[in-house]
Amino acid sequence: MKSVLQVDKLTKTFRGPAGEVRALTDVSFMVAAGQLVIVQGPSGCGKTTLLLSVGGLLEPDSGRVCVDAQEVHALSAEGRARLRAANIGFVFQQFHLVPYLSVRENILAAALGHASAVANDRASELMDRFGLRDRARHLPAELSTGERQRTALARALLNRPKLLLADEPTGNLDQENARRVWECVQSFAGEGGAVLVVTHDPPPAQNGHRVLRLNQGRLAL
Amino acid sequence: MSLLHLVLREIRYRRGNFALGVVAVAIAVGFLLGELAVLREHDVRTEQIIAAKEAQTHARMAALEDDYRKITLELGFNVLILPRDQNLNDLFAEDYASQTMPEEYVEKLAHSRVATIQHLLPSLQQKLKWPEFERTIILDGVRGEVPIANASAKRPLLEPVPEGTLVLGWELHRSLKLEVGDKIKLLGRPFTVGKLQPERGTKDDITVWINLREAQQLLGQLGRINGILALECVCAADSLPKVRSEIGAVLPDTQIIEFQSQTLARAEARQRAAAEARQAIANELENRAKLRQTRAEFASVAVPLATLVSAAWIGFLSFSNVRERRGEVAIFRALGVRSWQIIAVFLGRAVVMGLAGAALGCGACVLAGVAWHASAAHQAAAPVSFGPAMLLLIFSASPLLAVMASWLPTWWAAQRPVAEALSQT
Hints:
The structure holds two protein chains of two kinds. Chain A is of the alpha/beta class. Chain A has a single domain, classed as P-loop containing nucleotide triphosphate hydrolases (Rossmann fold). Helices cover 29% and strands 29% of the residues of chain A. Chain B is 60% helix and 15% strand. A nine-stranded mixed sheet of chain B has the order 6-7-5-8-4-3-10-1-11. Chain B has a two-stranded antiparallel sheet with strand order 2-9. At the A-B interface, helix 1 and helix 2 of A face helix 1, helix 9 and helix 12 of B.
């Protein structure tokens, strides 16, 4: 199976006035196309650090992250931005929608970094798929939390990324909305995408998915 | 979705911050245009004041010209009748005529019925050393005005000097400390000071006037004179050649020159008035130039200061905007939006802010100018207006100002660590 994400001996230490905090220590794993990998662990175990490092948003102290055979941290900042725009979709617990853009515009914001002639059609398709068609012109403030997260998910999938990174995507959702989000994520994996989800919530079903447990910055075997 | 669309959406969403920035730019533009308008109005007012003063001067000169013409008609010419063989060069060099002519010429002229002549004053003058006081003086023997035969009685212009008395010019009585009634000698003959002349600033100040008969005796020129002043000679043609020709017909053995004519004095006065008017205009121009310089100096401080304050205010607003949008920038970065695109979004906002501020500033200045122009006190002033070059300057400088003021916050936004911003929001 083709590897979309390859992480080797990733280490990250935060240095602050209170001293050093080792967030990740020699973390290694891979995610193949069509695979959904769930990273679980308690709060503060380094889940978000791992996700941001994998997405090229946080520089690790050592180790290697390869996405679609490109070593992320060997690229320039602009190169990493291009890689994210083309190959990586992000979903966050807080949604991070742009408050002054409508649902449609928020989804299309992903096309700013990766211009595409079919972006509008793709946005319409995703809105239909995630039940957002009627909300296309609404601002995030006018949406329910479930709709906001589905909008964020649609935005992450606009450019047909090879890797979807999700940070606690269901953390703020009720059971029903969490279920719908998981369905979407699983559907993406089912279509051949690689998914890395960090969460401390147990997934509703683990059919065919791999779970990695992170504890104090180390993957538990 | 384009970056411009994003910029415009954000502006609409955060109107308050944007509006404050627009007002800051408009204030800077308003200061610039206002100061330029004040300077322009100053120039217009200066032109109006100078034009009014010039018109006033022309009117005054025209009135003087008319006055001069009338006075000339009434006064006529003053002429000096000299012996034909008198060298004029010597006359002007020595201040008296060295040649003489018979005193009877004056009688002949008085009885000649020459219509142009109004007053006749014969005299015998000579520059000499006053031996008693070691002074160079002009001795002037006069007999007063010779009446014109068959002419209507007129008040004489000059009274005769009684025999045994003399009249002293200002410099002589001042320096010799002589008073009326003092007994003094002149060329060995005793005289009583009969009159003291006031200061004239001419050769009269060193002149001693005595009776013509006594002068002729003292100078050994009995029955002789060396000049006849014919005053206020009037002729219909108002021309000196006409006067000369009439007198010359009676006294062919003489020559006639125009002498200290009152008409000339009037003309000189007129020239002085014109010079004063020109000086007044020059003074006004100088005062207006000084005032303009003061205003320009004020503008040279006020406009940059207003621009600087506006820039600082825009910078503060931009920084506040950037802080508010940290999470937004972070998510754009996570979505793969390039740094230059993020910079373009913020600077694009600054450009729109600058353009809107320029439009607002220009519009407000035009309205204020129209209202000011319409007020009674400034109706003479020119309304605020600006040409294409000024508009181009304002509409390019204002966005530039906003961009420069927003540059640091924008750069800061683009450089912020994404992970940190995401975790904070």
